Amino acid sequence: MAGDEFGGRQFGRATAYGAGSQLAAARGEWRERPDWNERNERGWFDKASDEVASWFGDEAATRRRELYDHRGHGPAGYKRSDDRILEDASDALTDDWHVDARKVQITVSNGEVTLEGTVPSRQQKRRAEDCVEDLSGVRHVQNNLRVEESPSWDRNNSSDTISS
């Protein structure tokens, strides 16, 4: 094992990209792309650098930043169905560890999600809304959830008093 190899990584050498990277490098059929990863995506640091550079008028950085920024721009006329939004909202509440959704009903109409029922705390009420708010296709969330009334502490302990 050479001194510049550690854990299968080779430091100090150019990184080879392409089919069978080491084989391609040995044949000279590789190209160097230090700012792109294996999935043709730029790294976080490179993206952040371009963001800051674009603030100061670097047009090349602005082009690179906007080159692959198409997430959320679907086909013309596309509208997510209410049934699909309902399913995603139900999954989001079911998967969240901090929301007890056993007494929550969800309805969806034209992309507007309505939450009804009860939850044990105000935090769960807010979190339930947050869970469904950012789902694809949701235009508005109407949170009609109520916080369950907890039995209040009885100072006089009137349930134990003897009535005459």
Question: Quick recap of the structure?
Answer:
With 164 residues, the protein is an alpha+beta fold. The chain folds into two domains: 16-67, no CATH class; 82-147, Histidine-containing Protein, Chain: A, CATH 3.30.1340.30. The chain is built from five helices and five strands, in the order ββααααββαβ.
SSE order and pairing:
Elements: E1 5-6, E2 9-10, H1 21-27, H2 44-55, H3 59-67, H4 82-95, E3 104-109, E4 112-119, H5 122-133, E5 140-147
Characterization of this structure:
This protein is α+β, with helices and mostly antiparallel strands. It has a three-stranded mixed β-sheet. The chain has two domains: 52 residues, no CATH class; 66 residues, 2-Layer Sandwich (Histidine-containing Protein, Chain: A), CATH 3.30.1340.30. Helix 2 packs across helix 3. The protein is elongated and about 60 Å long.
Which labels suit this protein?
two-stranded antiparallel ribbon, Lipoprotein_DolP, SWFGD_dom, 164 residues, BON domain-containing protein, Histidine-containing Protein, Chain: A, BON_dom
